[in-house]
Amino acid sequence: MTAFRILLAVLTLALVAYTGVTIANHGVNLFPDFFGDMAEMGWPGQFNADFTTMLAMSGLWLAWRHHFTPGGIALGVLGFFGGGPVLMTYLLVQSFRFNGDMKIVLVGPQRASA
């Protein structure tokens, strides 16, 4: 569990740092590049389409884990738009909250006890 937590922390920090440099060099308007690559139907666009589906699955999982409550849906939307940093921070916090019990971390306390 310690190695997993370290990995989550390192990946989150690395991605946040990379994002900061990217924003400094290119600004925050990623949508024209992101969707432009998808419109060209090349490999960069394929990667963006794949990534978008992974973001959707991440957001859906977060909302499902919280039983599609309003807060869970909000967390899912945050996960979709916040990407890896949101998901990895969430997993890190939950790993401490539930003492490394991955069953609870993944399905939530209510489903884990069922």
Give the N-terminus to C-terminus distance in angstroms.
24 Å
Q: How many helices in DSSP terms? A: 6
Strand content: under 5%
How would you characterize the largest beta sheet? none
Following the backbone from N to C, one meets helices and strands in this order, namely HHHHHH
Shape: globular
Low-confidence stretches: none
Task: List the domain count as a whole number.
Answer: 1
Model description:
The protein has 114 residues and is mainly α. 83% of the residues lie in helices and 0% in strands. It has one domain. Helix 3 packs across helix 4 (70-97). The longest helix has 28 residues, at 70-97.
Q: In short, what is this structure?
A:
This protein is mainly alpha-helical and 114 residues long. The protein contains 6 helices and no strands.
Features:
single chain; 114 residues; mainly alpha; 6 helices; 83% helix; 0% strand; globular
List the helices and strands and how they pair.
Blueprint: H1 2-26, H2 31-39, H3 43-65, H4 70-97, H5 102-107, H6 109-112
